Amino acid sequence: SVHHLICEFSVHQTKPSISKMFKAVASTLAFAALFVATQVSSQSPSAYQLPADAELILNSPVSTSFSCEGQSYGYYADVDNNCQIFHICLPIEDDAGQIIETAQYSFVCGNTTMFDQQTLTCNYPEDAFPCNEAPSLYG
């Protein structure tokens, strides 16, 4: 009958459509997950992501030895970079209050200045707390 033919036609047409729809939804979800993961990772700071050409104003090549692991929240002069670079350490806690990671934001002081661990500002070397003594003021 014509009704049977129409129903059979509809069933055969919906199967590929459902399959295509499923593939489209799956692809969209995969893309969305990738997009969200990219956004999350780009929001999570990485250490030593400095402005382009930052090394041009530094006295020596960047040393990436400083780590925020085990540090409390605060500003930290990077002694291995002559205090021309400083870091903000930010412990990140889970819902139970346990530290799961410590984010590290890195910054470079302006030309001819260094991070003064005493004032927590970039300062001229002659006016700043001695760089090699900065760790005595950490925490």
From TrEMBL:
Q: Which InterPro entries match?
A: Chitin-bd_dom, Chitin-bd_dom_sf, Scoloptoxin-like
Identify the GO cellular component terms for this protein: extracellular region
Coiled-coil residue spans? none
Q: By its UniProt entry, which SMART domains does this protein fall under?
A: ChtBD2 (SM00494)
Which superkingdom?
Eukaryota
Give the Pfam families listed for this entry. Answer: CBM_14
| GO MF | chitin binding
Q: Where is the Chitin-binding type-2 domain?
A: 65-133
| PANTHER family reported in the protein's UniProt record | FI18007P1-RELATED (PTHR22933), LP10131P (PTHR22933:SF43)
Q: What is this protein called?
A: Chitin-binding type-2 domain-containing protein
